Amino acid sequence: MKKKFYQRTIELTNGPITSKMIRQFARSSTSRWMIPNYIKTYKIPVDDVENSLSSFPSLHDFFIRKLKEASRPLAPVPIVSPVDGKIEVAGDLHESIRFLVKNQHYSLTDLLGDRALSDTYKNGKYIVLYLSPADYHRIHSPADGKVIKQFVLGKKSYPVNQAGLMYGKSPLSSNYRLISELETEFGRMLVVKVGAMFINSIEMTNSKKIWKKGEEIGYFSFGSTVVLFFEENAIAFNEKVGNGSAIKVGEALGNMV
Q1: What is the mean pLDDT of residues 163-184?
Q2: Where in 57-186 does DSSP place strands (E)?
Q3: Contact at 8 Å (CB) between 90 and 129?
């Protein structure tokens, strides 16, 4: 019952007109007066923000704020978190290429739109990282690697918060998403960037073919999710990686097996 109510009310409001209105307001100078209240409401720390708060011309500009370089040191491991956020779940792919998030089973083939590509990650590992509206929303490379494939799928985006993941209609595999595949020292990995409700914007700021661990590769406009996939017997997650754990850019996710 809850699931049907959620889908019929929240998801049906996600149309192009609504999305455009929200996007236009957030990027307008009118929205800049919301910044102090936004910071207070979400208890956002601002000591590590690169620029002064008065320098942001809109709420959107504050949302995609940059941080002081020293605020996100890189752990001395091959795989680090690409974002600030919360670890929704981390574990093994089930039934070869299926994974579980908030009691919903997802097919990696549906997520990628490519059975041959999904087979590469058969029996591998995955981790889902959720970014709330309060989080820093720039995305960084989780490892050193070469970009061997990059493509976009989906059009609309539904909520990817706890309610969305639990009651929504498979938001991870139906939302607008930008998928990057890397060749690394521990094998191939996928960096799947999933758009959030209303705002589909995933902006890539790095067009290089070689990504360096920790360097910025893009940003989200408003809350969203990153899902990482690894090949079988490639990595082992750090012992501190657990469901519900908070994590920041550069903190350790795992080591090579």
Answers
A1: 67
A2: 79-80, 85-92, 98-101, 104-107, 125-131, 138-140, 145-153, 177-184
A3: no
Write out the catalytic residue numbers.
84, 140, 224
pLDDT digits (tens, 9 = 90+) for 182-229: 999 999 999 999 876 555 578 899 999 999 999 999 998 866 889 999
Q: How far is Cα 145 from Cα 181, in angstroms, rounded to an integer? A: 9
Digit-coded pLDDT (tens) for 142-169: 999 999 999 988 655 554 445 444 434 4
Q: How far apart are CA 130 and CA 152, in angstroms?
A: 19
Across 182-206, b (16+ Cβ under 10 Å) vs e yields: bebebbbbbbbbbbbbbbbbbeeeb
Residues 6+ apart with CB under 8 A from 28: 58
Quote the tokens at residue 4.
């049907």
Q: What is the DSSP string of 23-72?
A: HHHHTSGGGGGGHHHHHHHHT---TTBSS-GGG-SSHHHHHT--B-GGGS
168, 25 Cβ separation under 8 angstroms: no
Residue 41 has pLDDT above 80, yes or no: yes
- List helix spans (H) across 57-192: 59-63, 108-112, 115-119, 162-167, 171-174
* Closest residue by Cα to residue 133 from 179, 67, 180, 65: 65
Closest CA to 189 of 224, 225, 235: 235
